[in-house]
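PROTEIN DATA CARD
Card holder: Pepco domain-containing protein
Chain length: 121
Origin: Streptomyces malaysiensis
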Amino acid sequence: MDDNAVHLDDQALPFWVEVTEDGDDDSMGILGGGNPELRMVPLGPLRKNLAATVDALQQVFADVAARGGTLPLAEAQLSFQVTASGGVQLIGTGQVQGTRGLTLTFKRTRWRRRGSRGEQT
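Structure generated from the sequence above:
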């Protein structure tokens, strides 16, 4: 972990979350069922949880892309929300209607041959 990441772990960002009646920070998101409230979300847990989520999704996408076929996976978009404790919750299609969330877009990088080594286009 570099010094910049360690420094970020001690910081927080403001996020709008909906507070549930039971006050469980891990269930606070923006999908409804509570009162909106601006909370400071710790960057350490958020960074760790987002990195773990992206790592898992990249493996899933690699498995899907390896299948090939006539309609290969070229792009995937997922929406997620951040909990007050820095958790990451992916939003399923049944939940998407009328919700707000952050979107991750994964695009396949294209490489073409230039000279003796491949270079990104």
